[in-house]
Amino acid sequence: MEIDWLEDFLALSSAGIFARAADARNISQSAFTRRIKNLEHWAGTPLFDRSVHPVQLTPAGEAFKKTAFDTVNALKESKHDIRGLTQREADRLDFVALHTLAISFFPAWLSEMSEYLGPIKSRLVAENFSGCAEAILTGSADFMLCYAHPTVPTISDESRYPSAVISTDRIIAVSACDSTGTPTFDLTASGDVPFLTYPPDTFLGRITQVCIDRCQIQQTLNPVYENSVAEALKSACLEGHGLAFLPESSVKTELADGKLVKVSQADFEANISIRLYRSIERSRPQLERFWKLSQRDG
Q: How many CB atoms lie within 10 A of CB 138?
């Protein structure tokens, strides 16, 4: 029996609808349903009456609810106690962030926050979006820093994982250029433009596809290199290997220095926000002060 099953059970007992509970748990409905069935198999009896809508707890489910709630809370409290054994750990803020934000955004942003709060002890782990979501959902990080756009789903349970927009960015197409600023590649070519791209299931991959659809240049681009990290694509772009769609903040210096040039029009670009997520189940004075300031600045 897994702790996730108990949290799934509590989510469904509260929501009463499989789809809504699965969304709150940030997993697919099929996976959520399978885990509920696994829990019922472990218990040896149905815990939900599925003959009504919304579903209701069976008598066995009602009896089990307090045990599930107490067990989840006890484990979380124990985990929190273990992590709070020293003052150093209590004062440190744990962040998980997308690789690009960890490199191009986090250091300067943390400096700005430090101007108001004083020195901040922090730890940052860079992950893809799935890794970031897992870290915040399992309680192994205080804050999650990621991009957001209406076309890409993120954590939907704002009651447990509230978020604040702390900055904005823009996805633009860039290319290496010669000494006169003439781009090596551009979007007006007739075809076979070398394209540096992200895996299609990543956040930046999905947003890049939005830009490509707006430009209607799918047939023009010839993917020659794929990497999930924007900094890696930027390096390849600087070497003249192709054209790439990158967060504008990540190429600000290169654009100013004339090493890269923007080759997209405003209508073909995409505005994205930078969001800070937290779990309300992790709380201590330093964390709350940081969260309050991030909301004000956002």
A: 13
